[in-house]
Amino acid sequence: MSNQPIGVFDSGLGGLSVLLEIERQLPAEDLVYVADSAHAPYGAKTADYMAERCIKISDFLLSQRVKVIVVACNTATAYAAEVLRQHLTIPIIGLEPAVKPAVKLTQTGKIGVLATRQTANSARLQRLIDTYAQNTQVVVQACPGLVEHVEAGDFNSAELKQLLSEYLKPLQEQGVDTLVLGCTHYPFLRQTLMELIQGQMTIVETSQAVTRQVVNILTQHQLLQTNPLAQRRVQFYSSLQGELLEKSAKSAALLWQRELELLSLPAEFR
């Protein structure tokens, strides 16, 4: 199995922030990425709906003979990771908002978390706060609409900046100095966020930490690529079709920072 690909999926294109880091740290590995953009954002869906979609996408990744699956979505991890572990026999690696490292970084004892509505309200996030931030003030801000801007390839429009300003305002008013990006779409808004916070906050996200976990799991299970002559192959799939798929491919290329081919999932997985 060591020569088989790593599977990665997200509710849309945000998980490309994780895929980029996996590519950087594991340059010999083949990768298969699925953007479930036809069903995005997961943050607006029920837990049962998300679990159903995550199982279906994982079944597709299994058909591609992946050796491990990375759930590159905070919301899907919170509501479906355990379901996938019960459903599948290969390792499942989820991610979670970087509350623990943010607590270590804060100087004011106040951190902020930007997240989808579902993640903001999840028991998983509350457990993180209860475990690691008992002596820290945590301001959680749900951010409906941000995922849609990233999916559309909008990273700095006036409309987006207005939306971000509204979400940042309560954090700024309460003296937050460390900002957790609790959705894999949000790292693509880093430059605009830095412009708006003007050095008042340190930004923390999870792509490096989850990739270290991928390396650890592959090492433990002896699944690291062993072919020294391997030429890495990266495949991209989406649950979209037609013109929407073509439009999403343009956004994906912007995020991936190079040209790519975005294929539509087979009908039974869309």
List the helices and strands and how they pair.
Blueprint: E1 6-10, H1 16-25, E2 31-35, H2 47-63, E3 68-71, H3 74-87, E4 92-93, H4 99-105, E5 110-115, H5 117-120, H6 123-132, E6 137-142, H7 146-151, H8 158-173, E7 178-181, H9 190-197, E8 202-204, H10 207-220, E9 234-238, H11 242-256, E10 262-264
Parallel strand pairs: 1-2, 1-3, 2-9, 3-4, 5-6, 5-7, 7-8, 9-10
Helix pairs in contact: 1-10, 2-3, 8-9
Describe what this molecule looks like in 3D.
By secondary structure, the protein is an alpha/beta fold. It has 2 domains: 6-95 and 208-269, 3-Layer(aba) Sandwich (Rossmann fold), CATH 3.40.50; 99-205, 3-Layer(aba) Sandwich (Rossmann fold), CATH 3.40.50. It has helices at residues 16-25, 47-63, 74-87, 99-105, 117-120, 123-132, 146-151, 158-173, 190-197, 207-220, 242-256; strands at 6-10, 31-35, 68-71, 92-93, 110-115, 137-142, 178-181, 202-204, 234-238, 262-264. The strands form 2 sheets. A 6-stranded parallel beta sheet has the order 4-3-1-2-9-10, with helices on both faces. The protein has a 4-stranded parallel beta sheet with strand order 6-5-7-8, with helices on both faces. Helix 9 (190-197) links the parallel strand 7 (178-181) and strand 8 (202-204). The chain is globular.
